[in-house]
Amino acid sequence: MSTDHPPHSLERVRAEIDRLDHEIVRLLGERYRRVLEAARLKAEVLQVAAPERQRPVIARAEARALEVGLPPQVAHAAYAALIAEFVRLEEQVFSAHRDAQEESA
Ligand SMILES: C=C(O[C@@H]1C=C(C(=O)O)C=C[C@H]1O)C(=O)O
Q1: Ligand 1 pocket, 86 CB below 6 A?
Q2: Which burial class, exposed, middle or buried, applies to 101 when counting CB atoms under 10 A from its CB (0-12, 13-18, 19+)?
Q3: How many domains are contained in the chain?
Q4: What is the pLDDT of residues 51-89, one digit of tens each?
Q5: Alpha carbon of 32 to ligand 1 centroid (Å)
Q6: Domain span at residue 95?
Q7: Do the domain assignments include residue 5?
Q8: Model pLDDT for residues 20-59, shown as the tens digit of each residue
């Protein structure tokens, strides 16, 4: 279904939303794998949250939202939630790594 032929029924709109969600989650999976790579490149848990990096990432998402006609507060809320969860997962990578080191010591 292309955007040249907008869907007219609720069913068709929902089918298009489902198709987009499929792609969005695929992209989130790619992003998650890069976040794990970033975690592996950090020397200590204090580097995980990196607020100085979070701010421009969220600002860029808001600016991109404006370009594509998405209310920027939606991009802000989505990215703040995503990053909070990614930070939590990165912290788990660190504690698992620390536990493994302690066990082998
Ligand atoms: C991926 C990183 O780690 C965390 C996750 C971020 C993200 O999901 O964009 C950004 C900064 C950090 O809070 C990073 O430092 O780049």
Answers
A1: yes
A2: exposed
A3: 1
A4: 999 999 999 999 999 999 999 999 999 999 999 999 999
A5: 10
A6: 10-104
A7: no
A8: 999 999 999 999 999 999 998 998 889 999 999 999 999 9
